[in-house]
Amino acid sequence: MSNTWWELQIFCETELEDSIFWRLENFGCRGTASEKKGDSSLVKAYLPQIKVDLLDLAALSLWLRQDALCFGMAEPELQWNLIDEEDWASSWKQYWHPQEIGDRFLINPAWLPPPENSDRLVIKLDPGVAFGTGNHATTQLCLEALEMRFSDYNAFFQSGNTKEDNVVIADIGCGSGILSVGAILLGAKKAYGVDTDPLAVKATMENCLLNGIADGQIIAREGSVETLAKILEQPVDGIVCNILADVIISLVPQMSAIAKPSTWGIFSGVLVEQSKSVADALEKNGWIVATLWKRKEWCCLNVRRS
């Protein structure tokens, strides 16, 4: 049983992809991908057979239909079947292709050669079983926010300021490490990543090697903010957190404790209708929401200390 996996296939309207990715992550799926089928999409996802039974899959089907109804879209169709372990890890990869994000990033699957003559920052990625391929709107929003943040830093130093740029960030819920790697490629000195899933920590460190990140520039540990508090040498300059709204709200006091008066934050994984409750929690703990970026039903809050 331990080497048998459920393969889920969801036929849906393309506009539902992001909410489906989010629902599948919460359900515990390992590896997700999508492909276009005419005017619709086929989303595939995988998880070990021992994790769920048929009743759980039936419940997932109901949640997906309810989500679609909330957005006023056609109900998606969920199908499932069992596959052997050696097939699951490679099955979804055939649908994942290089993807440009923002003005500077290119996410490139590790098993494909990068495009020639690209002037973008290439993030080679093999997420393994961790969440974070760059397909989800929240990951894209975070990368674009990081790009904006480091563009501001570059403008600061190019204008004649002599202060050394030694930006250290915390990546809470690091997943595949995509945001930590992106920050380092943009010029961060160091990134500390934490995730409650040990497989995510493993994926983060493997993706550091794939991208030639220098030893010690990215440090990943299993745990959450309390783990960061123990390993940080000093408060961080920036915090990126792409998880879920309820988790962000619960962690805000702890995140505030590892921040400087000048620390900035990028918070995503938040549905638009949840943004007010997240903003309220941040403001109660001394943060100011500078901008709120939206993509489909998702948003990203760019914040700073008051």
Helix and strand arrangement:
Layout lengths: L3 E10 L3 H11 L4 E6 L2 E9 L5 H17 L6 E8 H7 L7 E3 L3 E5 L11 E5 L11 H22 L9 E5 L5 H9 L3 E6 L2 H13 L7 E5 L2 H7 L4 E7 L2 H13 L1 E13 L3 H10 L2 E9 L2 E8 L1
Parallel strand pairs: 6-7, 8-9, 8-11, 9-10, 11-12
Antiparallel strand pairs: 1-3, 1-4, 2-3, 5-6, 12-14, 13-14
Helix pairs in contact: 1-2, 4-5, 8-9
The secondary-structure class comes to alpha/beta
Question: In whole angstroms, how far apart are the ends?
Answer: 53 Å
Give the number of helices: 9
Can you write the helix and strand succession as a string? EHEEHEHEEEHEHEHEHEHEHEE
Q: For the largest beta sheet, what order do the strands appear in spatially?
A: 10-9-8-11-12-14-13
Main sheet specs: 7 strands, mixed
| Fraction of helical residues | 25-40%
> What is the overall silhouette?
globular
The low-confidence runs, each spanning 5 or more residues with pLDDT under 50, are 159-164
Number of strands: 14
Which radius of gyration do the C-alpha atoms yield? 19 Å
**Could you tell me the mean pLDDT?**
87
Strand content: 25-35%
Describe this structure in words.
The strands form three sheets. The chain has a seven-stranded mixed beta sheet with strand order 10-9-8-11-12-14-13, with helices on both faces. A four-stranded antiparallel beta sheet has the order 2-3-1-4. It is globular and about 50 Å long. It has helices spanning 17-27, 54-70, 85-91, 137-158, 178-186, 198-210, 225-231, 245-257, 275-284, and strands spanning 4-13, 32-37, 40-48, 77-84, 99-101, 105-109, 121-125, 168-172, 190-195, 218-222, 236-242, 259-271, 287-295, 298-305. By secondary structure, it is of the alpha/beta class. The model is unreliable at 159-164 (pLDDT under 50).
